[in-house]
Give the backbone structure.
Amino acid sequence: MSAVVENPGARAAEADDTLGDAAASKVEARKPGTSKLGIGKLGAAKGEGDGPARPTARASAADRHVGGRIRERRIMLGLSQQQLAQMIGVTYQQAHKYERGLNRISAGRLYEIAQVLNVAVSWFFEGLSAEPHPVEMSPRQRMCLELARNFAAIDNEKHQEALSAMARALAAQSMAAARGREAAEDI
């Protein structure tokens, strides 16, 4: 037989008097607001919600994108965050968190927001890529990055100025040659 002590301050010794020695060892003390399984208000298993919140688990790139689109549309309509919050029935703080992508928006709430902002729900997802693009640099981009790093590593300011002047001269020469080729093609 298992009993649950509703008062978190109750001791097993108190249960000892009413349940007997065998039952007292099975008494489970639990925090207020949790079920017998140790599931709290947020649905986290016992012990999981005790540490610091993980922001990455709450919001993703999609959440931030949708929030940004909400903010964009709100501003287009000339609404304040407070006005939007009142129109959708949430606090100003909650509307702010939606726009920043800090809190996820349920499907029903997103539908309400779409109605208030006079757009289709799909509008919030426009421009959201299905998968993140890998950042691969072309050989030219790598060369430019290497050039910038090397230039920044030059300690002598006169050498930097000389290198900059040389780059300007080479660029001017290349542009003049390109203009000459274009003029020759027009003839």
